[in-house]
Write a structure and sequence with these properties.
single chain, 131 residues, mainly alpha, 70% helix, flat
C-alpha cells in the first residue's frame, strides 16, 4: 500500500453545502390595471352576483313548489300527529294557531291597504304628468 504524497483535504462541511453564487432572475412585476380594465372587472363581478342571486332564487322557488305540491300530505301528517296528542293540548295548539293566523291577516290587510293607497296616488301623479 502506498499513500499519495498529497494529503487528502477533509472538509468539515457536508458535500451538498457549497458556496456557489448564482445570479438571481429578475423579480416579476405586476402592471397596474387600467381604468377600463377596472370597470370591466366591476361589471363582471356585478353580473356574477346577479347570476348567483337569480340561481339562488330559482332554487328557492323550486323548494317552495315542492312544498306546495306536498302540502296536503304535510297537513295530513300534522293532523295525525295532533290526534295523538292530549285533546286539551291539541285544542290549545289549534287556538294558538288560529290566533296567530288572525294576527298576521290583520297586519297583512293593513300593509296591503297602505301599499294600495300609495300606488293609487302614484298612478294619479303619473297620469297628471302625462308619462
Amino acid at each position: 500500500l502506498t499513500l499519495s504524497s498529497a494529503p487528502a483535504k477533509v472538509s468539515s462541511m457536508p458535500s451538498w453545502f457549497s458556496k456557489t453564487t448564482e445570479e438571481r432572475p429578475q423579480t416579476p412585476r405586476v402592471h397596474e390595471p387600467s381604468t377600463k380594465q377596472i370597470a370591466v372587472d366591476e361589471a363582471t363581478s356585478r353580473v356574477l352576483l346577479l347570476q348567483r342571486l337569480l340561481r339562488g332564487r330559482a332554487a328557492q322557488n323550486m323548494m317552495h313548489e315542492g312544498k306546495a305540491t306536498r302540502q296536503a300530505l304535510i297537513t295530513e301528517l300534522r293532523a295525525a300527529d295532533k290526534s295523538l296528542q292530549d285533546p286539551d293540548e291539541a285544542a290549545a295548539d289549534a287556538f294558538e294557531t288560529r290566533a296567530t293566523t288572525v294576527k298576521f291577516a290583520g297586519a297583512d290587510h293593513a300593509a296591503g291597504a297602505t301599499v294600495a293607497s300609495l300606488l293609487s296616488g302614484l298612478a294619479e301623479e303619473v297620469k297628471g304628468i302625462g308619462i
